[in-house]
Amino acid sequence: MKVLVINCGSSSIKYELFDMDGEQVLAKGLVERIGSDRSIVNHRITGQEPWVETAEILDHRQGLNRVLSLLVDREQGVLKSIDEVDAVGHRVVHGGETFAESVLIDEKVIQAIRENIDLAPLHNPPNLSGIDAARHHLPHAQHAAVFDTAFHQTMPDYAYMYALPRVLYQKHKVRRYGFHGTSHQYVTRRAARMLNRSLEEMNLISCHIGNGASCTAVQGGRSVDTSMGMTPLEGLMMGTRSGDIDPAIVPFVMAKEELTLAEVNSMMNKHSGLMGVSGLSGDMREITEAAFEGNERGRLALEMYTYRLRKTIGAYAAAMNGVDALIFTAGVGENSSLVREWTCRDLTYLGVELDPEKNAELPEGPQIISTPESRVAVLVIPTDEELMIARETQRLAREE
């Protein structure tokens, strides 16, 4: 079975084509600046050099049409006919309370995604545009929606409810939803296989830390708590997002600085986190370099980042009454040995013991970086959300 995975942003289409017999990536790429006469298409066949072009692509239908034409192109293609695509997996950011698992797409599903736009106004509309474009160009294929939020629908009510008037939940569904669910699900399953243990018998803490960051407590294979909330702003300190703050700061700053709602929202999402504290960058690589060159604000940003991550890990260990393994994934988690070291250095009370050499000299692929004596295994697992989406899509297509 060949599965095309699509992840649509407001002005982009990220895609990956899988041959599920062996789970091989045949081709992948990115269409950027959709809506422009100078859109960029970056396409790559596995094992070959990337192919890049600039073209006029005015909407998602046109963008996907260009992707499909490349997949069957005589030189850049990997298919003889687009009819070889059996199924399409769509990443959808927010499924609200409607979807606790991935589903095949029909008109009722589309309507339900549309009804959740208020919960993800920046993400669900382009996700719907991608679904519309793909169903138009690939009417023969089965289409599945895989939701970032679905994995977290197993949280108990005492974990997802906020201490606010009940009416806000009843009328507006104000509650914790969580994000990065596809990533957390993928790495926790991979961790169980690496440790040769049953997922159902383990307590795991998954740290997906990139520009956006979230931490999830996974007990028996089920998400029981997660750091992101109703929106991706809550929780850990991130590249440009504040994470947890005193909510009274918002009206205080709005009054003092005479900010509009849009301006304070932009401040917390785009100008805070590592960027706001350091005044330098939201990129952990630049923060680390600045800190070691003696930049005090860079050092403070790094300390705050790892301290808050460590606090969350401790809280989730308490919530699950223990932890068997700690997982680092995503851009920072996979690539910053320093963040892993500083996060774990004061987790010795849990029995965490890093192997300094394994942590510092990390080869490619999933690795265990704790010592054999460590009571808590520490793993670095490169996330693969696209593969997880492809697997879910294949499962649904076969069940139909």
UniProtKB/TrEMBL annotation:
Co-factor requirement: Mg(2+); Mn(2+)
UniProt: substrate binding residues: 91
UniProt keyword list: ATP-binding, Cytoplasm, Kinase, Magnesium, Metal-binding, Nucleotide-binding, Transferase
GO MF terms, alphabetically ordered: acetate kinase activity; ATP binding; magnesium ion binding
PROSITE patterns documented for this protein: ACETATE_KINASE_1 (PS01075)
Feature type site, description Transition state stabilizer: 180, 241
Cofactor binding notes: Mg(2+). Can also accept Mn(2+).
Enzyme class: transferase
Any one GO BP annotation for this protein: acetyl-CoA biosynthetic process
Protein role: Catalyzes the formation of acetyl phosphate from acetate and ATP. Can also catalyze the reverse reaction.
Family statement: Belongs to the acetokinase family.
Record-given protein name: Acetate kinase
Organism from which the protein derives: Paludifilum halophilum
